[in-house]
Design goal:
This protein is an alpha+beta fold and 279 residues long. Helix content is 44%, strand content 12%. Helix 1 packs across helix 5 and helix 5 packs across helix 7.
Amino acid sequence: MPFTHYRLMPVEQATAALEEFLTERPAALGLLRTELTTHGVDPDAMLDGFPSSLTPLWNWIAGRRAEFALDPATSTQAVPREQWPSWARHAVTGVKVPSSTMIVLVDGLVSYLALVIITGAPNVRWGLGSPEDSHHHLHHHPVLIGHGRQVFVPTLPMGGMMRLRRGERSLHATELEEYAAGAIVDLGLRPTAVLESQDSLVVVVAEPECFDIGVHPVIADRSPDLVDRMARELAGLDGIVSAHRSAPDALQVDAPSWHADELERWLIIWMKANSPFIR
């Protein structure tokens, strides 16, 4: 999609830009996990989905600030705008992002910050910012909406990263953690069912002819299309004979060569990466 600022987009283009933004999120989160692994950090331990995890993550990112600046000695070049994440192309003006490392870290941080907020406030939904007010600074931006509030998730990560790159004082150590906790309060309405830290995202039961899979109701209710999309993804995997939705929060999967633990691991990884970004 060519560069047009979100505020200047007609509703059809803004809706397409929202879908593009959401489509990018799982891959961006995956690249952040890969970056952590490459540098000897366990992503499962670091990225536990709670606001407190944002403090060590930000400290780790800030410790790599030297990699964000242009360095003629290593031929580091500015990344062209057409290779930026869509939210940056459509919202950031007059800025050169100098390295692919910075792109990976800031885009992954955007995905993870969104995941943390949605985990804490599962009632929120993705939508277009202030669609009726063309003068609002978040008009037609991809935002999280809840309790009469809206949040454009990239704002704080990008601001913090740009100040790091310029060598300026950036976010204080716990600022992202405090921001996420505040956003959860602002956006959240505590639902009847909640996702507690000890709860399983999925339950896999091996029956004689198939696997019965139950999805936590909070996740299934927040993303009505999630179970259908999960079934489609499963159906394309090797060794999966069939996968179909059997209830709003349940699947039946025929996979004779799969073990229940193996299937559960795949489902949990897929859900953590994808469920926050399905409308």
